[in-house]
Amino acid sequence: MTASAHRPELLAPDSLAAHSGVVSESEHSALRADIRRLSTMLGQSLAHQAGDELLQLVEEVRKLARENPDAVTERLAGLDTGTAVTLARAFSQYFQLANVAEQLHRSRELRELRPADRRPLHTVMERLAGDADHEAVQEVLARAQLRPVFTAHPTEASRQSVLAILRRVADGLDQQASDAELGALVDLLWQTDEIRPGRPTVLDEARNVAWFMERLGTMTVPDLVGEFEAEAIAHGFEVPADSRPLTLGVWVGGDRDGNPNVTPDVTREVLELYSDRALRIHGGLVDQLIGELSISTKVMGVSEELRGALARDRRALPAVHDRFIRLNQFEPYRLKLSYIAAKLENTRTRIAEKGRHVPGVDYLGVADYLADLGVVDRSLRGHLGARIAGGTLARALRSARALGLHLAELDIREHGQKHHDALGAIYDSLGELDRPYAELSRDERRELLSKELQGNRPLIRRHYGLPEAARTVIATFDMLHEVQHEFGPEVARTYIVSMCQDVDDILAVAVLARESYMVELKSDPRSSVDLVPLFETVEELSQAGHLLEGLLSDPGYRQHVRNRGDLQEIMLGYSDSNKGAGITSSQWEIHRAQRQLRDTAARFGVRLRLFHGRGGSVGRGGGPAGEAIASAPFGSVDATMKLTEQGEVISDKYSLPTLAHDNLEILLAAMLDASVLHTESRWPDDTLARWDEAMTCVSEAGKKAYRELVGDPRLPEFFTAATPVDELGRLNVGSRPSKRPGADPSLDDLRAIPWVFGWTQTRMVVPGWFGLGSGLRAAREAGYGDVLDEMRAWAFFANLLGNVEMTLAKTDLRIAQYYVSTLVEPGQQELFERIRTEHARTLREVLSLTGDSVLLERHPVLRNTLSVRNGYLEPLHHLQVELLAQRRKSGAGDEDLERALLLTINGIAAGMKNTG
């Protein structure tokens, strides 16, 4: 078969170029015109606000960067910090304005490239109707659920005020606002402080992500769900009334792995915030319905069900009846909706005041709210009002099913060792074991915890108090149980165990969850929480199938999964696996892990939901998400999927409604396509075996080369000196520490985000490509040259090559040389030569496979875009090097210096459109 026969047409618009910017010459020309217009206005603002002298400095530095880059360093040497701040702001705001203009033109281009009959959902439904078994499609549509999970990021701390201004700039460009109107917004942007005065709290980060999620919940989510339903029906399928094809998830406020600032009280406060935003959306829709549904019983009848509901509401909420009965005596829909509005407001008040739920007065979870809307819907449809019901009421129902009363489901995450520490304190206080719990082997812990899980006794004697080491962990489980009863069961029902290495790590969580009444295996079997192992290192990933088999073989845990509907969620970690073994081995082991998990789950009769922990940058699993789904192993996508949307790229993907809609539509269409049309291999077994063999050779050699670099004892000092990663830990850019608690000066405990961040800021971008060149060369030398050429038709391999090619295009070792020569001791600079050598090797191997003479040769518009960006990035890099040198010489304490440094960090991140 040819490669084109295997490539889903619906994903073509999700190509590397379209993922990264505009792709047509015409739209690129229009974009350049808008950027020039905004750049001119920024120059005018700078001259007016900071003086002509500073504007001249900006222009001088920009010209030098284009004509004589080496001279920029000399020009910036000894620059006073006040001027440095202004210079950094000027170039950073250029990228903010350029990015928002690019977002607008991408959205315009998408409208032109994808008319209604070429939208991804239309295309996939057309294919499902023509190529798939009808019943199989129906079964997938009934279970379909895509959940993007929004996370915080330590370098994405944009204030809502700045985001709102940039959104107004985009609207102004789209609506052809005058220069005076746009100029006023640019002035406002210049006069707005883009940096918070202190380190953001978890609640600050929650407000930031809630800003995006509320806008998604208001427009994009109900719009897209409506299109999903319409396309399915148009192609002869039925959509169950309770279907939830798209929901939102969030980690901010629930991810406590290594973040001591996420306490049970903070989690509860964050849930109140998300709930408030959801109730605001629902309240707005109900108010709109009150205005619209003026139907009178003098003209049209209503259902007896509605009359009965109104009678019950009158008894529960007499004040609402007394207030509205005079006006709405013959308008029962308005009266019913007034009761619903009151219940929503009472729910907000109850949550804020931590009161008790009163049935009929407020809502506990979304079920009763949906029931109330359903009464209205059925009455309308039963009395010649089907078209009326298909308007705002249908939108309200979609919003309720997708958002619940919580906006987004909050995942809880904690490090696996925390649970063993807690259990150790509990068991040691009981004195039942012949030696301390910490001294037990994993097999011994597994046997102990399996027996405990299937027993009936309470392990914790709460009236005696909890051991100190167990209090925080138990408090988290207690809080989770409580919020399910205060906000509704769907508010937070996923508990992720990071650094999960064996079966005992999950059994430990199951035992602790049982102590907080969330897992019951004996009388009245039930469980209210999904327990999710997170496989993060290549070693864990390589054992993923074995570990899942061990879990599902345990009788107690198997009952727990049965309690949860025979669905097991597994999270795959892209960041730490990349940091530990390099991109090639990371991607290959994740691919193989999905195969193992698919096969193991099938043997046990369990459905699998994979949660992809992808970052924004390629070094952390980023790249076109639709392509990634299409390149997954056959049968590994089963109607449901979760994936992280990292803070660093949320603004790029979700700031404008068209882009948000397009991103989610691609994901949803790709998930449906893979679930129905990719359940069997697209290639013969012998072909896959040949490719697997070659890919394993590439992976092992790539991992060896990568680990030789990161294992060099000089690398920690080189990395710390050459990059601003050490400064990141000291600046006010995130609530989460950049290193895990108790971390030593080695790289082992440095988190993956700052690891990628540091390399990216300096333009070495090592995590995005290092090792692939050595791997490909080793495979050729081992006789796999023809096989590698053949593998370009394999979606997995093509996706890997495409993402690495993009990373190589963003890598600039000439700029990196400035960092190394200025900031790194001469004795350590040899490491940079090793990076140069592997870079040249990777570049040569990738171009050999693509058949191109230069990177991105097939994407000339994208190449041009990156070239233009580089001209503005160059001064920021030189300025950052100068500021790093000054800071390390003078030490901490100069607020202007630290502010200027943070501005360069944010500016480079904006210019490259990712950080870590």
Question: Quick one: overall form?
Answer: globular
- C-alpha Rg, in Å? 28 Å
Helical percentage: 55-70%
Biggest sheet overview:
8 strands, parallel, barrel
Average pLDDT confidence is 91
Amino- and carboxy-terminal Cα gap: 38 Å
Explain what you see.
The structure is a single chain. Helix 17 (416-430) packs across helix 19 and helix 17 crosses helix 20 (503-515). The chain is mainly alpha-helical and 916 residues long. It has an eight-stranded parallel barrel with strand order 1-2-3-4-7-8-9-10, surrounded by six helices. Mean pLDDT is 91; it is low at 1-14 and 741-745.
Note the topology.
Blueprint: H1 16-20, H2 25-50, H3 52-67, H4 70-76, H5 81-113, H6 120-131, H7 134-143, E1 145-150, H8 160-174, H9 179-190, H10 202-234, E2 249-250, H11 264-292, H12 304-316, H13 318-328, H14 332-353, H15 367-381, H16 386-403, E3 409-415, H17 416-430, H18 442-454, H19 468-486, E4 494-498, H20 503-515, E5 519-520, E6 526-527, E7 530-535, H21 538-542, H22 544-553, H23 555-563, E8 567-573, H24 575-581, H25 583-603, E9 607-613, H26 625-630, E10 640-645, H27 647-654, H28 657-677, H29 685-710, H30 715-722, H31 725-728, H32 752-761, H33 772-790, H34 795-810, H35 813-823, H36 830-850, H37 860-890, H38 895-912
Parallel strand pairs: 1-2, 1-10, 2-3, 3-4, 4-7, 7-8, 8-9, 9-10
Antiparallel strand pairs: 5-6
